Amino acid sequence: MDAQTCLKKLEYVGVLAFATVDENGAPQIRNISAIHYEPEAMYFFTAKGKAFCKELMADGRVQVLGYTKYKEMIRLSAKAVPSPETEQRTRIDTIFEEQPYLANVYPGDTRYLAGIVFEITDAEIEYFNLGVNPIFREKYIIGNGQITFKGYTITDACIGCGKCAKDCPQRCIVSGKPYQIQQEHCLHCGNCYAVCPTHAVEKRG
Ligand code: SF4
Ligand code: SF4
For the whole model, what pTM was predicted? Predict the structure, then answer.
């Protein structure tokens, strides 16, 4: 898997969930299909009058989530910015050509007055496949995106008792000094953290 394949998969999914936070700190989420994809970028259309646009303008942070029929979750964490003014018209036209239904929603030139295109060129992409055994997760970036680490890790306080490995639902802890978590197969369920007698398991992030 890689970032480009993740974007392709999102394109096949078609309708994605976009999450932001509003001015009161409350989560806001909506589905968007007015999206144009490039190998390392995503462009999406919304209306300038929508709260979504206001939230993007105020902060820009957005999470984009898609889920395939093969139980693959793909999540982008990114900052969205408006495409340059000089590119707005072309970007809008590209998205409307690829998504003909939009011409019913914003007929004629109303699209240019109402619409705005945002772009995502820097992002962290999380791929999480629950349809394979063991489960598989990995992170990638596009542009200047940053990888953040989550889940758990085992420190030198490990005494090798094996309790964590026994209670790991994915059997992804291997023995050693210290024991080690295979991060690509970890659910982040926290069982190892809960059962370790020496608190050798630490949370990441
Ligand atoms: S439960 Fe804790 S001490 Fe025991 S093997 Fe796992 S990490 Fe090491
Ligand atoms: S968090 Fe859960 S899946 Fe991951 S290593 Fe610990 S017990 Fe296993």
Answer: 0.92
